[in-house]
Amino acid sequence: MTQTTTSASAGMQLRGRGILLLITLCGAAFLEGIDIAMFNIALPAIRADLVLETTELQWILSGYVIAYGGFMILGGRIGDRFGRRRVFLAALAVFIAFSMSGGLADEGWMLVVARFATGITAAFMMPAGLAIISTGFAMGAARNRAVLIYAGIGAAGFSLGLIAGGLLTAIGWRWVFFAPVTLGVVILIAGLALLPRDSTDLDRTPFDVPGAVLLTAGIVLTVLTVEQAAHGLGPVVVVAATGAAAAIVAFGARQRRAPFPLIPKVFLRSRPLLRAYLGAASLAAGFAGFQFIVVLYLQELRGWTALQTALAMLVLAIDALLAPTLTPRLVSRYGTWPVAIGGLALAVVSYALFLPVAPDWTYAMMFPSFLALGLAFTFAYGPLTIAATDDVADEDQGLTSGILYTSFQFGAALGLAAASAALTVVAEAGGAPMAAYRTALWVPLGMGLLGVAAVVVARPNRLDRPGGPSAHQREARETGPRECVGSSH
């Protein structure tokens, strides 16, 4: 399938219509970032207003995480097959509808449904948006700069969302749902006018529906296992872990037999792509665990308000300024991977600087750690995104974008669960809160070190990247002409 995002706009530059298109897609990335951050800040107010049990409150949060992480690869592949413009706009429209319904909810289960649905729509919308950028702009400096701006705005959305969440929650927690509706409508109108139209030619390549179902089930159950493990090894964890293992094994068997597998083998054998996915997972894991610990330390031990906490961590949004300006110059001069590794190393520095934290630390003592983490995202997030999409065939851009975002989401779930488990173990052993925080801080530090080690050790070899022809075409060369039957490429 050759989409017009490739043919019609392959030479698009960062001027005129190209800038307007990038602004529209960056708006969607910003929307997704602030939606997550604002909601996290509003949880205590939601609990108080609707009188929710801890379990209900936890599922409101988990529903989004599980849906987002579980449907990402499927969403990316559907965008490749049916058209990224169609999928992006449809997902955004559903996102707006369910965000509105969440703001009108008066029962906990309504919020769970709304958040689960918005998680699914984000899983379809985000890979499609990144794929439109990675296929729509001219390869080289224009594409790299567009990807870096897109990644930086998305990360800044999360940081600024903390502030917006604090302000909106002070007015009323329902505005945390209503505010994204307004921004979403503006993006939808702009998208209808600016997003390049998809090809009218239908892709006749068979779609691996059984593989998609097995993979989605495996990821959903894996994320559920990791998320629930923080609360103890109960029956939910055992059942979810067993189901996840069975689904993943069945998926692997299916991919070996399927003529047109959902994830072609070349993706799993490409070291540059594996480095990008592993780096993304470690970056998200360390950040999620670190933020969780810091928020608890500032609010529960130090007595800071949600708004004070958000303002303290506002420096993390420095990537919104530097990612579009400084990072492209560094990538142009030193290359993608040196800059990405430098960013991952800065994350390790950030976590190490916070290890000696004490009950009487001043903000000046915390600031270097927060600044280093903001710089880590400046130098790592965008280059990792470039590495995951560079030299990948246009037909497979949605797939690699889906795998990348799944890596981020799964890493965040893993880091959050591990940090929470560390805090729980120390607390149940009778340790003081300060001891629990210091012990748990080794989790993000360990995640960061593993990430640096993974991307350094997994150096590129001479195996082909899934670029040039589509991944299915490349696999057909290896396995024989039988697999090309029915292909429209």
UniProtKB/TrEMBL annotation:
It is a multi-pass membrane protein. The keyword Transmembrane applies. Gene3D superfamilies: MFS general substrate transporter like domains, Multidrug resistance protein D. CDD domains: MFS_MMR_MDR_like. InterPro entries: MFS (IPR011701), MFS_dom (IPR020846), MFS_trans_sf (IPR036259). Pfam families: MFS_1. The chain crosses the membrane at residues 20-45, 57-75, 87-104, 116-140, 147-169, 175-195, 207-226, 232-253, 274-298, 304-322, 334-355, 361-382, 403-427, 439-458. This is MFS transporter.
